[in-house]
UniProtKB/TrEMBL annotation, chain A:
Name this protein carries in UniProt: Splicing factor subunit
GO cellular component: precatalytic spliceosome; U2 snRNP
UniProt-listed Pfam families: SF3b10
Record-stated family: Belongs to the SF3B5 family.
Superkingdom classification of source: Eukaryota
GO biological process, one term: mRNA splicing, via spliceosome
Automatic annotation (TrEMBL), chain B:
Compartments reported by the entry: Nucleus
Homology family: Belongs to the RSE1 family.
Keyword hit for Nucleus: yes
Major localization class: nucleus
Domain of life: Eukaryota
Keywords of the record: mRNA processing, mRNA splicing, Nucleus, Spliceosome
Keyword Nucleus: yes
Domain called RSE1/DDB1/CPSF1 second beta-propeller: residue spans: 463-789
Biological processes per GO annotation: mRNA processing; RNA splicing
Protein's name according to its UniProt entry: Pre-mRNA-splicing factor rse1
Domain RSE1/DDB1/CPSF1 C-terminal: 887-1211
GO cellular component, one term: spliceosomal complex
Organism: Ophiobolus disseminans
């Protein structure tokens, strides 16, 4: 029993410390948003990738960067209604 | 049992990436001048700018083997130089000091602080970096949540201590930008733009999302409490994206400029509404401009003048630069003002240097250095003040306008050629030179270009003058040993010798004593004040030539002639200031030394050889001795022999010391001192040129005469001749074969570098040292030329042809030496609309000023009657924007004869061009067609289009004009086209289709529906096999079966790894190399059995019955190699790079990288390199703190590829380190010299 409690505590500590550590209650929206945000931040962080996209969109890198950041706010639309 | 992989590659970077991630100015040396620190790809470089040298040169560069994300500088109180801090993907904060003294230049790591996981991640800090202007703290932040602050303090005289990090995390908060505020010596403050999205996360209605506020947050680092606090925050404009620091301290306002869409706002901590000042960003005026389009600031810089004044240069996405000034009497801001400054290409970083230079690290195309002509106060552009605009960006106001104009305040001084971004590459040889050229399409928008890159040294022509007849040889000589500059030029014309005097101009010298009616073999300044002329019939010794009257009439004291024995002629000679050796036609070599009175004294000994002597060489007299010790003799029996000239133990001279056997008779020999990696810094080298065109350089030991440490390379298909020259103050060797080459010591790595000259071929050259300039003199037919070199660090030359829009693909037509380039520009008004708008405006103008027009007509000085409203030149100003609109064209480029664009076809139907191919249709005879894929109304976010088509163009017989033949609509944009078996295959979305050409449209002959999971990006073929690259799922092999009707296209094998392929190339029938969007290069191979069975049945019925496996095809490819290149490969090709070289895999990356992958041919070498790489990984750890193995395994574990860039670090390591690494290599005995040779061979024989 104590082991289970410790595992629970450890999980909670991890969830507090790292973004995106899921739990049994993680729903699809949370999971996909998290994944999308990870991807978007990777696009921003890798210079060649940001440049690749900027050239495709025909705009400066700074504009693309801000657009991607804006998309990180709500990458997959509003969360679903709570069902209680 | 050990198993070996069947293939191993050596990855070399041929051209470093030129896309700048960040650039800052600062005094990193500590000499009171400013340098520029730039981060390109994984490379940090320091550039020095000086007025004296007219422009910039690279002082030092270092590969950190990590993705450099941000760089910043800090100077601790009392420090004399700026330190560098960088964030990379290593999860560490690393700071450097740049050490530059006589001994070495290096980045010395000062701090090395681990703070998180490696990699570019959402919550690992490193995306943003800010240093306190007073150098007391550094803050780093991630895109979301995490922020860390390090405190810097001085400990002792010079050391800088760094604290453990303080955390300022805030979950569910995005950071847009981060800066260090200037607060003087108050507690350090940082400001960031943040957005907390937590409320939107739990609100299903979406209302909270609409109401999210962006905040400007101030963080204060309390140095007393060692604590960071979120001091204050205020909501700002929702579109805000950038912050700029406002100088603080006594009598300075402090605070920030917060830039967003259409607004620049001055704010400071604890401000109220009245102390906020806002400016709108001026918009361009013009008939083609949309007056409602709002601009944003994408970059800029603050510049502080002496005396506390300051201004900003801020750049919009159009490239317009504005000067922003702040009115702050007594330290309180009253208003801010903005004025148009100039228009320069959009830059990632703009650096203003105190010397009056502005460096623009352009996002696309060459980097440019400007000189500040004025500070923009005199121009009559409108000035806008913050009084004119409401503080609230939502409130209405009259938008400010300005008229863009040509550069006034800035003048471009120099450009730094850069290939960035490469949009396509092809290695080809339409000019039929020795070595192929690299053709690339580069740049974006108006700065697009088509470039030809060659491996050659750029030559600066100084003098070009005609000669009365063809000359075969040239020498220059001093008159006495004390002279510093050359006085005479001696030319050997056809059985005639011409002597010229170098004065203010070059004129023929008379009465010099030279024998005129003979061929000359050699000229040498001899002894104190004598000159000897060696000709086939003897040696003429002239003493004391002088030009007493400053004209071309000489006087000389005495003349002596020495004649060879009867019936013999002199065939070769070697001379230096005190020694002469001549070879006679009989195979004898006679040797002379300088007597005390300067005359020739023949030695009693002589050499008699059985074979004919073709060449002799003798080094210069070493300093402090009376004679050179050795002589080299080249014989037609394919040997080079070394003889001693100084008496040996028994007192004998002219004894054979060593013999070197060659593969072909030597055509020329020379011996000189060149700098190298030996402890003395230079060694004596014997250069051997062979008739077969092979060049050999060996070390000739100065004491023993032994030959060792040999480098060998084929230079060209003609016999080699040499000239000893001095280039950039260093001795070098000019090797002349089918074209001239320079052999020199690389300034940084101190290894031999061989580069051809970008110059006409010539057969004779000599060093030239005049009073005005130094260079190399050469004769080519009846022309005398003197030239010098610009720069030895760059071994490539460029030719550029301007293109119209962003190039997307290029297709070569090798028969005609032309390239077809398809170009498309997103969100841009197309040419037709631009013209209509301009014409409308013209008509309007004409109506408005009818009267003045008539006067002009009467005067007759205007053909058109009035000023036409001109389009702004797009190279500087870009194109007018229009959302959702595409401007596209196809251009025919002739880089060979015309060196220009020969034909342009504009596309007006809002179509974007996505692919192109040159196709020979069997049904249409011998004619080649240009096939182009288009997409109508294309948008990427989301991926949408209203139509797609394939256009077929007819090509004129000379290849220089094209005309539309027909257009066929297809269901999806065809992103890949390829001529295939007299027909054409097209990747139409997910489908692979086979088309034939009809008279009115393309006719579909076969289709593989849903051939790949996402979109077909690239197609390659060999035989009946097609390799299909997918946008997200690697490559699929497809086999074409033409024995059945309808034809079948059957995918039979695909990959296990999802690679977002950008390009692919078949290396052989089974192997494919490709690159992906994340910067990987990989090789996959089809197993032998599957490969064979795919071609077995004529109708493919057995393949069709194979069941698919896990949603893909029935079989899977084997992974052969993986490598992370840190640049997105755009084109990849299997090609030869050098004349006589082996084939390599050559690739081009979007950031301007050119790289080569070289297959290993020897297991012994491979084993050595493998061990060396392993050693270097641990003994020369990457400076970024990134683990090298992890870096090259960024997405996929590195496999079967050895990083040549890391290996080449071995060349610049210290002597001890080299020795210790070499000692640890097992297997065979490897000395550092042998390793150097192996490294040299990998680059020298395959790439450049």
């Amino acid at each position: 029993m104590a082991d289970k409690l410790r595992a629970q505590q450890q999980l909670e500590a991890l969830q507090a410390r790292f973004i995106g550590v899921g739990s049994g209650d993680t729903n699809k929206h949370e999971w996909t948003s998290n994944m999308q945000r990870d991807s978007l931040s990777s696009y921003i962080g890798h210079p060649p990738l940001l440049q690749y996209m900027s050239i495709g969109l025909g705009q400066s890198r700074e504009k693309t960067r801000v657009q991607l950041l804006e998309r990180m706010i709500r990458p997959v639309g509003p969360p679903p209604e709570q069902q209680d | 049992m050990t198993s070996f992989s069947t293939m191993s590659l050596y990855a070399l970077t041929v051209k470093q990436p030129s896309a700048t991630q960040d650039a800052i100015s600062g005094d990193f040396i500590g000499n009171g001048k400013q340098q520029i620190l730039t981060a390109n790809g994984s490379r940090l470089a320091i550039l020095e700018v000086s007025r004296r040298q007219k422009g910039f040169h690279e002082l030092y560069s270092h590969d950190v083997f990590g993705i450099v994300r941000r760089i910043a500088k800090f100077r601790i109180a009392g420090g004399t130089k700026d330190h560098i801090v960088i964030t990379t993907d290593s999860g560490r904060l690393v700071t450097y000091e740049f050490v530059s003294d006589e001994k070495e230049k290096a980045f010395k790591t000062v701090h090395f602080e681990t703070f998180g996981k490696s990699g570019v991640r959402r919550v690992v800090p490193g995306e943003y970096l800010a240093a306190d202007p007073k150098g007391r703290a550094i803050m780093i932040a991630s895109v979301e949540k995490n922020k860390l602050v390090y405190i810097l303090t001085r400990s002792g005289q010079t050391d800088i201590a760094i604290s453990s990090p303080l955390e300022a995390h805030k979950p569910q908060t995005l950071v847009y930008t981060l800066i260090g505020l200037d607060v003087g010596y108050d507690n350090p403050m940082f400001a960031s733009l943040e957005l907390d999205y937590s409320t939107s996360e739990t609100d299903p209605t979406g209302e909270a999302f609409e109401e999210l506020k962006k905040e400007l947050v101030y963080y204060e680092l309390d140095l007393g409490l060692n604590h960071i606090v979120r001091k204050w925050s205020e909501p700002v404009d929702r579109t805000a994206n950038a912050l700029f620091r406002v100088p603080g301290g006594p009598n300075a306002p402090s605070g920030v400029l917060c830039c967003g869409e259409d607004s620049i706002t001055y704010r400071r901590i604890f401000n109220n509404e009245s102390s906020v000042h806002r400016l709108a960003i001026p918009r361009r005026e013009g008939v083609t401009e949309d007056p409602n389009r709002k601009r944003t600031i994408v970059g800029g810089t603050l510049y502080s003048l002496k005396g506390g004044d300051f201004f900003y240069l801020l750049q919009t996405e159009d490239g317009d630069v504005f000067k922003l000034t702040v009115d702050a009497p007594n330290g309180t801001v009253e208003k801010i003002k903005i004025k148009y400054f100039d228009t320069i290409p959009v830059a990632t970083s703009i650096c203003i240097l105190r010397a009056g230079f502005v460096y623009a690290a352009c996002e696309s195309g060459d980097r440019i250095l400007y000189e500040l002509e004025s500070l923009g106060d005199e121009t009559d552009d409108p000035m806008f003040e913050s009084d004119q605009f409401p503080v609230d960006p939502e409130a209405s106001f009259a938008p400010p306008f300005f008229k863009p104009r040509a550069l006034t305040n800035l003048t471009a001084v120099e450009t730094m050629p850069s290939l960035n971004p490469i949009m396509g590459m092809e290695v080809a040889n339409p000019t039929l030179e020795d070595a192929p050229q690299i053709y690339t399409i580069n740049g974006t928008g108006g700065r697009s270009s088509f470039r030809t890159t060659r491996n050659a040294l750029e030559v600066l022509d100084l003098i070009e003058s005609p000669l009365p007849q063809n000359a075969s040889d040239v020498w220059t000589t001093k008159l006495t040993i004390e002279d510093e500059t050359d006085t005479l030029i001696v030319l050997c014309l056809h059985s005639r010798t011409l002597v010229l005097k170098i004065g203010d101009d070059v004129e023929e010298a008379s009465n010099t004593g030279f024998l005129a009616d003979t061929n000359t073999l050699g000229v040498q300044q001899f002894g104190e004040d004598c000159i000897i002329q060696i000709h086939p019939k003897g040696i003429r010794h002239i003493q004391g030539i002088q030009f007493p009257d400053d004209d071309a009439v000489a006087t000389h004291m005495s003349l002596t002639d020495w004649q060879p024995p009867a019936h013999r002629t002199i065939v070769a000679c070697a001379t230096n200031n005190r020694q002469v050796a001549i070879a006679l036609s009989s195979g004898q070599i006679l040797y002379f030394e300088c007597d005390s009175d300067g005359s020739l004294a023949m030695a009693e000994d002589e050499i008699a050889l059985d074979s004919t002597i073709s060449c002799l060489a003798m080094p210069d007299v070493p300093e402090g001795s009376v004679r050179a010790f050795f002589m080299a003799v080249g014989c037609t029996d394919q040997t080079v022999r070394i003889f001693n000239l100084s008496p040996d133990m028994e007192g004998n001279i002219l004894r054979s010391i060593s013999v070197q056997a060659l593969t072909s008779p030597p055509s020329d020999l020379t011996i000189n001192m060149m700098s190298d990696k030996s402890p003395r810094g230079h060694s004596q080298f014997l250069h051997i040129g062979l008739r077969s065109g092979v060049y050999i350089r060996s070390v000739l030991d100065e004491m023993t005469g032994d030959i060792g440490d040999t480098r060998r390379r084929f230079l060209g298909p003609e016999p080699i001749k040499f000239a000893k020259v001095t280039v950039a103050g260093e001795p070098a060797i000019l090797a002349m074969t089918s074209r001239p080459w320079l052999g020199y010591t690389h300034p940084r790595t101190s290894v031999l570098q061989l580069t051809p000259l970008n110059y006409i071929p010539f057969k004779s050259a000599w060093n030239f040292e005049g009073s005005q300039f130094k260079g190399i003199i050469c004769v080519s037919a009846n022309e005398l030329r003197i030239f010098t070199f610009n720069d030895l660090t760059d071994n490539t030359t460029y030719e550029m042809i301007t293109l119209k829009y962003t190039p997307r693909k290029m297709v070569g037509y090798p028969d005609q030496g032309v390239f077809y380039v398809i170009q498309s520009e997103n969100n841009t008004l197309n040419a037709y609309t631009r013209h209509t708008l301009l014409e409308e405006a013209d008509v309007k103008k004409e109506d408005d000023d009818d009267a003045p027009m008539e006067i002009e007509v009467a005067n007759g000085d205007m053909s058109n009657g009035h000023d036409k409203i001109d389009e702004l030149p797009p190279t500087e100003f870009g194109y007018p924007r229009a959302a959702g609109s595409w401007a596209s064209c196809i251009q025919v480029v002739d880089p060979v004869s015309d060196k220009a664009v020969t034909h342009t076809v504009e596309i007006s139907a809002n179509q974007s061009l996505v692919s192109a191919a040159l196709v020979y249709f069997e049904s249409r005879g011998e004619e080649a067609f240009l096939v182009v894929g288009t997409a109508k109304d294309l948008t990427f976010q989301p991926y949408k289009y209203s139509g797609a088509s394939i256009q077929v163009y007819q090509i004129s017989t000379d290849g220089r004009r094209i005309s539309l033949f027909h257009e066929t609509d297809v269901s999806d944009p065809p992103l890949a086209l390829l001529g295939f078996k007299g027909k054409m295959v097209a990747g139409v979305g997910r489908n692979l289709c086979l088309y034939d050409c009809g008279t009115r449209s393309l006719l579909r002959k076969a289709q593989a529906s849903n051939c790949v999971p996402t979109r077909i990006m690239d197609l390659k073929t060999q035989g009946s096999r097609l390799v299909v690259a997918d946008a997200a799922e690697s490559v699929t092999y497809v086999v074409h079966k033409d024995q059945v009707h309808p034809n079948r296209l059957i995918p039979f094998i695909d990959d296990t790894v999802s690679r977002h392929a950008t390009c692919a190339e078949m290396l052989d029938y089974d192997t494919t190399v490709g690159g992906d969007k994340f910067g990987n290069i990989w090789l996959v191979r089809c197993p032998q059995k599957i490969s064979e069975s795919s071609d077995e049945s004529p109708d493919g019925s057995d393949l069709l019955v194979d069941k698919g496996y896990l949603g893909g095809t029935a079989n899977r490819l084997d992974n052969v190699a993986n490598y992370f290149a840190n640049d997105i490969p755009i084109s990849i090709q299997k090609t030869v790079l050098l004349s006589g070289g082996e084939r390599v895999i050559f690739w081009a990356g979007i950031q301007g990288t050119l790289g080569a992958l070289i297959p290993f041919t020897s297991r012994r070498q491979h084993k050595m390199f493998q061990q060396l790489e392993l050693q270097l990984r641990s003994d020369d750890k990457p400076m970024s703190g990134r683990d090298h193995l992890a870096f090259r395994s960024y997405f996929n574990p590195v496999k079967s590829v050895i990083d040549g860039d890391l290996i080449e670090r071995f060349l610049v390591l210290s002597r001890d380190k080299r020795e210790s690494i070499a000692a640890q290599l097992t297997g065979a005995e490897w000395s550092p010299g042998m390793i150097d040779e192996a490294i040299w061979n990998m680059r020298g024989l395959y790439a450049f």
